Amino acid sequence: MNVLGVGSEDVLFLEGRKRMPKASYSVTRLQRHGYVFILPTLIFFSIFLVYPMISAFRLSFFDWNLLKPKVYIGLKNFLTMVKDARTINSYVRTLHFSGISVAAINILAFIFAIMFSSRLIRWKNIWQSLIFLPVVLSIVAVGVVWEFMYQSTGIIPVVLRKILGASPVWLTNTKAAPYAIIITYVWKSVGYYMVIYIAGLLDVPSSFYEAARIDGAGFWGQLLYITIPSLKNSIALAVVSCVIFTFGQFSIQFVITQGGPSRSTEILALLIYRQAFELSKFGYSAAISVLFFLTMLIFSLIQLRLFKSGAVGA
Asked: Which residue, among 56, 92, 77, 84, has the nearest Cα to 266 in the 3D structure?
């Protein structure tokens, strides 16, 4: 008699559970083994990323030129940096270059992504490949080619003189040179961020747009209430990564203008290089690199906070 009301099938199930072998590995042991596999990567990043960052922060409190022993000077490098007109100029130039470049790159990349998501564009793969092609080119080669294009006999001034009747002196004018650098960098980078936005658009269900069209929403309505909110994560990824990469740009300025004319294109990364390897002020260079790092950290945290709180779409 089954007093407890347990059927024969339940009894067999319980007996089978008792006879089942226990798992040989617990979750904790598997996690520990996982850490072993990522240990080489952690060691690599610790040696070539974490340790240099800590060393640079420590070096910023010293006066050192490689030839003499390090001399501890406390916050003197940071106090000098605050009063240094050259450092202030480089900081302002970096913000100017980064702000315009990030805005231009993301706006153009977004427009291209929207264009190529339309069925009206023919030969999409060809156009996408042409826009993405500069991304895979060497940035030094790009700088050399654009430097020749900006010369007085280059293709850009020649075309502008034929169309507009005049052309700025791109590389020797303090007002035109920063924009020459920005144009080159935007041309080089926009294809990479276009791919990010295209990937985000592919994840937006087409049923959203079909329902919007049935409700009478036009292009702008779909863009504002479906596309942009759906691309919130893609926008955050593109903008934050673009700020980091742009703020740390060095090669374009070094190849095309070497920071000139009159330091109008001397950004922080280039100033850090010159203070260390041209003037042998390694402690002062490290102090500027700390300012560089803190600025990028603050901008990144602010952007992530804004996107996380739903500042872009809902």
From this structure: 92
